[in-house]
Amino acid sequence: MLKNVQDYYYPGSLAEASELHDRESRSFFIAGGTALALSESSRPVELIDLGKLELDGLEVDEDRNRIEIGSTTKIQRIVNDNEIGSVLGGYLSESLEKIGSYPVRNAGTLGGSLVRPFPWSDVIPILSVLDTTVSYYHRDGEGRRDLASLYNSDFRSMLNRSIIKDISISLPESGETAAKFIKFSRSEFDVSALNLACRLTVERGVINEARLSIGARPMTGDRITDLEKELVGEKLTEDLAETAGVSAADLAELGGDDRLSEEYRKVLVKKMTAEALMDIKKEVANES
Amino acid sequence: MKVEFVLNGKEVEFDVDPGKVLLDLLRESGHKSVKAGCKTGDCGACMVLVDGRAMTSCTLYAAQVDGQDVKTVEGLEDELADRLKESLLEAGAVQCGFCIPGVLISAYSLLSKVENPSRDEIKAALDGNLCRCTGYVKQIDAIKETAKSLGGS
């Protein structure tokens, strides 16, 4: 636990929370607390609890085009939600259920996972293959950004000072879109040693949109855009899945030797990429 | 700082250090069913119900539960809790007993929401509880038996 917490606040509004945060450089926002609970840092002296700001909530719009998730919504609540479970073949529920253990998911929030991303984060690859935007608040300004640009260096200091309000995910229209998340870890609820998310839109057997993101490389998740481009226009076959695995292992920026060696990660990337593509192939075939 | 919440059905108020975790507050106030194990949220021995959700009290600041409803095993006094305790004993699922309060909390949380859980659902509900004595088969049997005795098939 943190070693030096001297004050704890329950702001009544976003503006108050932001003001409290700006006033003390060693203050931290807290929602689920799972990240702070494992830190032994002596730096934070103030905690600003976002739990009473009513930032939790979950909604799939009537046309099933969009999911809105409040930033302090507990991950297990998303996993349990029937509507979330019924969109995109249950991708979001099934993927998020692979994070930590039941009590961790009962405490952890999506906003917390995004604002302070760990290299082994599962949430970042899971969300980055979807059309995800994140709304943020600071008393000097608020806005919404694509998840892809959330960690750009030009926004980093703003993100550090901001409160994430909600996460919005646009759902694809076609029934021929499927997604898959695969996690490799040393035990059932250990953090990922490597994770991979893939989403494909397939029309008459041909890929017309591809997203592939690899995390815990051991660096934070990132999309392999060169491979995504290679996949578009290709027929989704077992051979393609194998070839894509080889390309992914070549293109992914991997490091060692945190939890796994770089060489082992390469082997896993190859296997997991091929597996994800084949699983998606099966799912798309079942739906069409 | 003052923290107010409902603990085992009673409104309570504590004067706590802002950095104190719920686990320490509960144990210091006599709730010894809440065990201090790993203190990193991995073993589940310190589990409590917060607004009905099973959570590890070692990874929660006491201040985080202000205004919420907290239950420890001491506060589980209904038929479901009694049946669970009996079933765990009858199944031989208790050896050293250190993990059992956490297991009870997880099982209680599950059976409060799912009348007749499958073995897979029970396994998922127990995935935050470590047991190093009997293992999990007897615990799962006991939870299944509890559900059956309360009307699940």
Descriptive account of the structure:
The complex is a heterodimer of chains A (288) and B (153). Chain A is built from twelve helices and twelve strands. Chain A has helices at residues 14-23, 34-37, 75-80, 82-86, 91-96, 102-107, 110-115, 123-128, 153-161, 225-231, 238-251, 262-287, and strands at 7-9, 27-30, 46-49, 58-60, 66-70, 131-138, 141-146, 163-170, 177-185, 192-203, 206-215, 222-223. In chain A, α11 (238-251) runs antiparallel to α12. The mean pLDDT of chain A is 93. Chain B folds into two domains: 2-75, Beta-grasp domain (Ubiquitin-like (UB roll)); 79-149, DNA polymerase, domain 1. In chain B, 35% of the residues lie in helices and 15% in strands. Chain B has helices at residues 22-28, 79-90, 100-113, 119-125, 137-149, and strands at residues 2-7, 10-15, 47-50, 53-56, 69-71. Chain B has a five-stranded mixed sheet, covered by helices on one side. In chain B, β1 (2-7) and β2 form a beta hairpin. In chain B, α2 packs across α5. The A-B interface holds A 1-8, 10, 30, 33-34, 37-38, 47, 49, 51-52, 74, 76, 97, 101-104, 106-107, 188-189 and B 1, 17-19, 21, 39-42, 44, 47, 50, 53-56, 58-61, 63-64, 66-67, 106, 124-128.
Helix/strand order of chain A: EHEHEEEHHHHHHEEHEEEEEHHH
What is the radius of gyration of chain B?
A: 15 Å
Number of strands of chain B: 5
* CATH fold label of the largest domain in chain B: Ubiquitin-like (UB roll)
Topology-level CATH name of the largest domain in chain A: Uridine Diphospho-n-acetylenolpyruvylglucosamine Reductase, domain 3
What is the count of structural domains of chain A? 3
Radius of gyration of chain A: 19 Å
User: What is the rounded distance between the termini of chain B?
Assistant: 49 Å
Per CATH, the class of the largest domain in chain A reads Alpha Beta
Termini separation of chain A (Å)?
51 Å
Give the full name of the CATH homologous superfamily of the largest domain in chain B: Beta-grasp domain
